[in-house]
């Protein structure tokens, strides 16, 4: 098509948490192409197949272009006035009759910071409850809890760019080649340039195949493996003694615990070779600039927070965090703005900037600015919301841009919760599985149609700019929330996204120096950014850790088994994850040409298991867990170990979360997506 491009808009990718900067080229109110922005700080001119090519969903025929309201059991198109009036009336009635805690909100890790700021302001001031959560509960809540406990702040310690000078990367529970491709490529480049690579993953991923040591540890054994590596670091004296002496606490307790984790013991728990453990510890221990990169394979476990803390121990023992030239520990956040949604206070126990709701002085500061009381009692976490709906304590659920019926574990339980609610409101671009349970669905804008900011996985605020107008009457979450608040008789203030970030910055010391103006002028800024004349802190803790005593806290955490173990009835362990060309529930990527590259999901199974069960490639198998059943198409591959199977959750036709369990991290309620015992038989 040789017709001229009518506009080019620079914005931030709305898929994964890497936060690539993209140029969106528009012709005739449609996207003609997306290219990575030359010289962009995060992606340096690169982008993956999702960010570059998966944009046709914006003009998909089934995009919602008007509100839907349920009449006689059917969702039908309505006017904005009818939808807003109904939502305002029902939320007001439920709040007034049953109290504010009868309403909960799930905000969106895909929405902008400003939308998340407004969402938590809405639920706290207009409804009067702290029951707001976002999908970080399902992925990196253990990172927020674990990194805060170890170092003081709920984010990674160093920027992605610091991988440029690492000589050894320990990659744990992450497959960035598929889930965070620009990071995957950066790691690969670094390894090809000579850096050593240790991969801890139950699957043989592309980077595992490239690694010096691949510890193919059994699902659920992370804490044992990390303790085993720490045992070896201490035993072979790969320690930064000066750092340990002056800037850490907890060494003696840790050393005592680690006596129980010699290589032979850990090898038996994790089903790895003890010699590989020793080799991995030596590579990491002898490196001058070791880096740790990890993902949901560490967090989405019954002991995910312990996993983060015992992984952080390795960085602390080596002095690889908070020191000049260090490379730190980097959690690969899943969704584009899961860091930002949490940073903005879309959580049940903290206000923006992780300021605790229980602190009277903090609440008072927000109350003065907002002119309304801020509730003190922590709200419900997402899994608690579902339980409360089924018990009758929760009567209304407001869901912004998350398809919880497909993405959350134990889908049957989620459906029961949605059906138990008296009233369900959604914002969505499509009639998702969750929308099918809603009473009102507002037609939502995509990230390509929004104004605001995202925070990527290395704590970098970046601008999001609208390249397109939303179709029909669709609108962004910011405007929808403003209109619902108005319909309930109370404004939210913050007439624009820039005003919302300004208000948030005025109330939140770690964001005090941030503004849309600065981001326009400077491109991106890391938080903490405490003043408008100071740069953001890309590397944390160079002076002191943000813990109460200013020291990094080593954690003595024992290995505890996962929530599920295989047995005679459920002999396989199911791991869930992501594929390169699709994203999360697939609602966007399945409506693009990416679908041709991967039109269906498969259940990966080891060839020896497939042969034993007489399951040729392409066979449909009934897969059953203690929690549900679904049919998946088997694909034998040595990428999974014997006794394990793997599937992604991108397709409603392969609803793998029918199977996943209700077990959650003991500290944060993050679901244990990575370990479910299942039974498999041909159809
Ligand atoms: Fe978007 Fe992530 Fe791909 Fe970058 S790596 S283009 S942020 S999906």
From TrEMBL:
Q: Which organism is the protein's source?
A: Saccharopolyspora elongata
The protein's required cofactor(s) are namely: [2Fe-2S] cluster
GO molecular function terms attached to this record: 2 iron, 2 sulfur cluster binding; 4 iron, 4 sulfur cluster binding; formate dehydrogenase (NAD+) activity; metal ion binding; molybdopterin cofactor binding; NADH dehydrogenase (ubiquinone) activity; NADH dehydrogenase activity; quinone binding
Q: In what residue span(s) does the 4Fe-4S Mo/W bis-MGD-type domain sit?
A: 6-62
Q: Does the keyword Iron apply?
A: yes
Gene Ontology biological process terms from the UniProt entry: ATP synthesis coupled electron transport; formate metabolic process
Ordered alphabetically, the record's keywords are: 2Fe-2S, 4Fe-4S, Iron, Iron-sulfur, Metal-binding, Quinone, Repeat, Ubiquinone
Q: What is this protein called?
A: Formate dehydrogenase subunit alpha
Known role = NDH-1 shuttles electrons from NADH, via FMN and iron-sulfur (Fe-S) centers, to quinones in the respiratory chain. The immediate electron acceptor for the enzyme in this species is believed to be ubiquinone. Couples the redox reaction to proton translocation (for every two electrons transferred, four hydrogen ions are translocated across the cytoplasmic membrane), and thus conserves the redox energy in a proton gradient.
Q: Name one GO cellular component term.
A: membrane
Q: Return the similarity comment.
A: In the C-terminal section; belongs to the prokaryotic molybdopterin-containing oxidoreductase family.
């Amino acid at each position: 098509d040789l017709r001229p491009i009518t506009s080019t808009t620079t914005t931030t990718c709305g898929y994964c948490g890497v936060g690539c900067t993209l140029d969106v080229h528009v012709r005739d109110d449609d996207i003609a192409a997306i290219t990575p922005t030359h010289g962009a700080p995060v992606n340096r001119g690169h982008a993956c197949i999702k960010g570059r090519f998966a944009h046709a969903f914006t003009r998909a025929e089934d995009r919602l272009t008007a509100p839907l309201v349920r009449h006689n059991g059917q969702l039908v198109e309505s006017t904005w006035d009818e939808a807003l009036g109904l939502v305002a009336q029902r939320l007001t009635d439920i709040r007034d009759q049953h109290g504010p805690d009868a309403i909960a909100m799930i905000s969106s890790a895909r929405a902008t910071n400003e939308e998340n700021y407004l969402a938590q302001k809405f639920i706290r001031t207009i409804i009067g409850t702290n029951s707001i959560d976002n999908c970080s509960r399902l992925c990196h809540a253990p990172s927020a809890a674990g990194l805060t406990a170890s170092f003081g702040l709920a984010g990674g310690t160093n920027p992605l760019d610091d991988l440029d000078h690492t000589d050894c990367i320990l990659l744990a529970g992450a497959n960035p080649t598929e889930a965070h491709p620009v990071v995957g490529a950066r790691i690969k480049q670094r390894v090809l340039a000579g850096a050593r690579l240790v991969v801890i993953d139950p699957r043989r991923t592309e980077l595992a195949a490239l690694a010096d040591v691949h510890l193919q540890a059994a699902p659920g054994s992370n804490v044992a493996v990390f303790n085993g590596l720490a045992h070896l670091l201490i035993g072979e004296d790969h320690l930064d003694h000066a750092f340990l002496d002056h800037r850490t606490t907890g060494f003696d307790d840790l050393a005592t615990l680690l006596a129980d984790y010699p290589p032979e013991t850990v090898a038996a728990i994790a089903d790895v070779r003890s010699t590989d453990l020793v080799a991995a510890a030596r590579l990491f221990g002898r490196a001058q600039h070791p880096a740790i990169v990890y993902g949901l394979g560490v967090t989405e476990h019954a002991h995910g927070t312990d996993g983060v803390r015992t992984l952080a121990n390795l960085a602390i023992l080596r002095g690889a965090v908070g020191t000049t030239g260090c490379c730190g520990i980097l959690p690969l956040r899943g969704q584009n703005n899961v860091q930002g949604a949490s940073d903005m206070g879309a959580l049940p126990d903290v206000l923006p900037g992780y300021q605790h709701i229980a602190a009277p002085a903090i609440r008072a500061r927000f109350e003065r600015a907002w002119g309304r009381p801020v509730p003190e009692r922590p709200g419900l976490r997402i899994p608690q919301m579902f339980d409360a709906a089924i018990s009758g304590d929760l009567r209304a659920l407001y869901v912004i841009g998350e398809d919880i019926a497909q993405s959350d574990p134990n889908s049957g339980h989620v459906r029961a919760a949605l059906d138990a609610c008296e009233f369900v409101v959604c914002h969505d671009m499509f009639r998702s599985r969750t929308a099918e349970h809603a009473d009102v669905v507002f037609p939502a804008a995509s990230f390509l149609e929004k104004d605001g900011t995202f925070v990527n996985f290395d704590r970098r605020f970046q601008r999001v700019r609208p390249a397109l107008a939303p179709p029909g009457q669709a609108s962004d979450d910011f405007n929808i929330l403003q209109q619902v608040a108005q319909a309930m008789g109370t404004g939210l203030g913050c007439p624009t996204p820039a005003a919302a970030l300004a208000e948030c910055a005025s109330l939140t010391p770690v964001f005090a120096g941030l503004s849309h103006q600065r981001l326009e002028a400077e491109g991106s800024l890391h938080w903490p950014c405490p003043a408008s004349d100071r740069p953001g802190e890309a590397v944390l803790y160079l002076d002191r850790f943000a813990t109460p005593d200013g020291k990094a806290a080593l954690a003595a955490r024992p290995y505890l088994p996962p929530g599920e173990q295989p047995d005679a009835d459920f002999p396989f362990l199911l791991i869930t994850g992501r594929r390169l060309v699709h994203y999360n529930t697939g609602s966007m990527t399945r409506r693009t040409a990416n679908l041709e590259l991967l039109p269906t999901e498969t259940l990966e199974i080891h060839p020896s298991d497939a042969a034993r069960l007489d399951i040729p490639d392409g066979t449909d198998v009934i897969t059953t867990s203690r929690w549900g059943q679904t049919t998946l198409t088997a694909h034998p591959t040595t990428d999974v170990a014997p006794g394990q199977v793997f599937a992604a959750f991108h397709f409603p036709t392969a609803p793998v979360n029918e199977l996943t369990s209700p077990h959650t991290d003991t500290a944060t309620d993050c679901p244990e997506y990575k370990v479910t015992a299942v039974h498999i038989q041909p159809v």
